[in-house]
Q: What sequence folds into this?
């Protein structure tokens, strides 16, 4: 179980993978294998130490695949977590002693995030992950190390992204209704939005264009369809 | 010259301090003290290894102050640089052997940036910096390690910030003319902007508000004054 000598014991990567399922925002967590003595279940973001000879982006992709079998995601580096005591809590002691050659080393973690359509990614489990699954962002258990903090910061980044209109286009169908768009915003912002105000705001969004088309095959009055366009630079 | 045992030899911080002088964008570089054998002058971003017991933000503030005597800046973490070979170039060898206890260690650097009014910060020099001064961003010499890359990435972040209207308010007087605002945008984007198009774009900016006031004490026709307002959330 102990890592090879090629491992850099001072630097890790952690991946916050958000999934959207047309209604809710979830996050991918692994359950860590028991280090023997412990009884409590341990949940964590997928993350591990980097190899000495790999770059950080490369490490993030590799670690995510090893632990959850997911690959090909666009991982965006968003923050480095370096509190000197981020891995010295009592709750993490047994795990560190089982899995790390230098359980006392200060580990700085470079965190990445991604937002995907949940249905397109079926996670598996490998390495020290016993399993991995999607969790509602409002039902997150206590996580290993400072992973609750990392998740919180990733959520804040995601919310900033959406407020600057920088996400969305691959999370909805090519042509979508305003209700679908509102559900995406509500899931990410984690609060209900007033329908009328939302529609007013959308009218001012340069990257959302109304189409001369309506839904088909619905029993209710078919809603107008919209699409995303590339944001033009204003200046 | 060698660092104390309290130093973490694997993680450093680097600071990209941009200065605006109402016309040009500059960046703060230090000239590193000669390691003896070398003759070539060595320029670098202010940066150094972190202490084992300090957080990353704290390290960035301390290192900046030690090398350039500047303090109290708002430093924003923007990226972690972790190419396995970022400090293994021949050009950096002598310096590493003189100043580092583990010249071969892989060092991951957490980079910070700040944008300040240049006139408010007079840099000095300390530690392994022989001097520090402001350099025009178009006249940057070859820098130590991967510092040219770090600077480039910081510039890209800064340009993204301004395109989302997130900077500016403390770089200009409280009340300013559109020419002053245009010079700020031109300096950061590093390209001339068309005056008419710029004025049209400003009209759409929620965070710039025209005032019922004009310049006073100028020999030419006094220009209208503007001020910054807090960006309101759209949704």
A:
């Amino acid at each position: 179980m102990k890592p090879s000598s090629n491992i850099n014991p001072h630097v890790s990567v952690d991946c916050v993978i958000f999934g959207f399922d047309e209604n809710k925002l979830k996050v991918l967590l692994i359950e860590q294998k028991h280090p023997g003595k412990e009884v409590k279940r341990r949940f964590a973001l997928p993350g591990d130490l980097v190899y000495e000879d790999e770059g950080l982006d490369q490490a993030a992709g590799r670690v995510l695949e090893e632990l959850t079998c997911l690959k090909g995601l666009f991982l965006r580096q968003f923050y480095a977590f370096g509190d000197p005591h981020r891995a010295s809590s009592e709750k993490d002691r047994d795990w560190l002693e089982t899995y790390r050659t230098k359980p006392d080393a200060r580990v700085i973690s470079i965190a990445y995030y991604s937002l995907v359509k949940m249905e397109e990614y079926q996670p598996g489990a490998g390495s020290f992950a016993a399993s991995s699954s999607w969790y509602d962002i409002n039902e997150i258990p206590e996580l290993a190390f400072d992973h609750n903090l990392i998740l919180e910061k990733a959520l804040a980044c995601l919310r900033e992204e959406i407020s600057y209109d920088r996400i969305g286009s691959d999370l909805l169908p090519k042509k979508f209704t305003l209700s679908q768009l509102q559900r995406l915003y509500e899931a990410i912002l984690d609060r209900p939005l007033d329908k009328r105000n939302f529609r007013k705001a959308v009218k001012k969004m340069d990257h959302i264009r109304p189409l001369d088309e309506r839904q088909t095959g619905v029993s209710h009055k078919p809603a107008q369809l919209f699409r995303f366009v590339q944001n033009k630079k204003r200046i």
In short: Residues 176 and 225 of chain A are 5 Å apart (CA to CA). Chain A touches chain B at residues 8, 10-11, 50, 52-56, 59, 77, 79-80, 82-84, 106, 108, 110, 163-164, 185, 189, 193, 197-198, 201, 204, 233-235 (CB under 8 Å).
